[in-house]
Amino acid sequence: MSEERQRRLRQPIVAVLGHVDHGKTTLLDKIRGTTVAAKEPGQITQHVGASLVPSNVIEKVTEPLKKLIPTVKLELPGLLFIDTPGHEIFTNLRKRGGAVADLAILVVDIMEGFQPQTYEAVEILKQRKVPFIVAANKVDRIPGWRPNPDQPILISMRKQDPSVIEFMDNQIYKIMGELAKMGFDSDRFDRIKNYTRQIAIVPISAKTGEGVPELLALLAGLAQRFMKGKLKYVEGPAKGVVMEVKEEPGYGSTIDTIIYDGIIKQGDTIVVGGIEEPIVTKVRALLIPEPLQEIRATKRFRAVDEVSAAAGVKIVAPGLDKAVAGAPIYVVEREEDLEKIKEQVKKEVEEVLIETDAEGVIVKADTLGTLEALVQFLRSRNIPVRMARVGPVTKRDVMEAIAVKRHKKEYGVILAFNVKVLPEAKELAEKEGIKIFQHNVIYKLIEDFEEWLNKLKEEERRKELEKLIRPGKIRILPGFVFRRSDPAIVGVEVLGGTIKPGYPLMKESGERVGSILQIQDKGKTVHVARAGQQVAISIKGRVMVGRHIHEGEILYTDIPSSHARLWQTKFRKELSDDEWHTLQEIIKIKRKQDPLYGLAIGASTNK
Ligand code: GDP
């Protein structure tokens, strides 16, 4: 190995995130297009799942900026952009304690501002501690914008009407506001004072290319600044992460990987994370895409002897079909390190999987990365997880959910991200009423579950509310005794609150006098009577008119202490003014016998 290669800095890995349709793919295409247009022969290495923008291309694109802002001299060999945008891919760019991506571009449609997946992307970037730049995209859609294709935004901005710039700045302020709420200080890139503390917002158009020079210059500058402390040279055995497991015609089982450190060679022994256990195998071939311009190329891939970080490469080796996306891959340089590395890979995979007896949801995902992200999101929302595993939903998962459902109805569910539900699992789930949420967008999956959860909680609240005895005050109308006992039937006027069949009654002294059996209004049975109504009620229990109760007497609903407590706390808003008033009268009567009536002493009301 030459001295020079030993000291070579590696390219920072850049990922693009943001809400759907905000322009991530268009931006990546633009950046790749820039590279293709500006490239010099022999300088571009093709990558699997990633595109390299060499530093000479960055220099060429950012050349016009030299006169406008201080640009840094590039020491890095370029930037490696992950080709597929979105945080599902990003979540797989994982390594222990962080991300494989060194930097990220957060794309925000300047017209639409923050959207659900934007928040989610920022949350993931925060969780994984990845520095990022905001591309405020689609400036060309600002009313009145005059496009200046591929120009620096600083130049294009000078050619706009002041009202257009004002509009743009307003939109940027909104983005700054949202970022501030999430704990990030930010500003328009040309107003930033401290790049290590503030996040730069670059207005761009992925369509016209305006602002792309600044975006690339800032990325390169940021990369150099952030990576300076931990300057990353290419050396030693490779470390990488599995992005995708694929059956490739003519090659068998392969994995697409991003190598973020070191060198990997054909014939190397590697350890790759698998669902059950680490896979130890030998690299049969390293494949990179055939350059696009090679028209006569018959194959899609070309074999190479070795690849060095940072790079996207397809690895061909036996046994890789059991590998799992998001899992680590390590080259074993010395035979004696094998066991240690195997142990480490095993540990790293197991750290993401969860298996407990907790009353929590069951989580299934297609990859280790999405599983990890999902679990983190659930945790941040205080939703407990019982089991988290990679793979399709099986009968066992449903059984686990059934066990949870017995004690905690709201968590007896399965959240399945981008995986199938096996037929026997589906059958059992349907039979047992286990809900399986399925989606291939993380935020949608969580949103669907939370919506259901809220509905369930609302339903339970309703049920609890239904069980509570409402405050009610009635007067027995003189001359309206229809039957004196067994049961007593009398005409009453509801003076306040509400009465319903089943409600116990008490006198003004607090003495219990049976409970309401039936209510009739003009000869028809009704289920409720409210203040102002005159109805006939029958009273169950040993109650005789003239002995226990009398014409003209006032009765109240006999509310248990625990109900009175809930009426004053959790369900305060459910009472009408006259019900509230009636409750106060009831409390006054009750406290004569029980001074703690309706108080929260010794009990918790906020369930
Ligand atoms: P993604 O889902 O974030 O990858 O978004 P796409 O890159 O697919 O873009 C979504 C839509 O927005 C497409 O119709 C693009 O043509 C359009 N688009 C993306 N960037 C721009 C831009 O800068 N200006 C305009 N006018 N349209 C854009």
From TrEMBL:
A GO MF term: GTPase activity
An example Gene Ontology CC term for this record: cytoplasm
Keywords linked to the UniProt accession: GTP-binding, Initiation factor, Nucleotide-binding, Protein biosynthesis
CDD domains registered for this protein in UniProt: aeIF5B_II, IF2_aeIF5B_IV, IF2_eIF5B
The Tr-type G domain, residue ranges: 9-228
Pfam family of the protein (one): GTP_EFTU
Keyword flag Protein biosynthesis: yes
Entry-linked PROSITE patterns: G_TR_2
Residues binding GTP, per UniProt: 18-25, 83-87, 137-140
Protein's UniProt keywords contain GTP-binding: yes
Family: Belongs to the TRAFAC class translation factor GTPase superfamily. Classic translation factor GTPase family. IF-2 subfamily.
Functional description taken from the UniProt entry: Function in general translation initiation by promoting the binding of the formylmethionine-tRNA to ribosomes. Seems to function along with eIF-2.
Protein name: Probable translation initiation factor IF-2
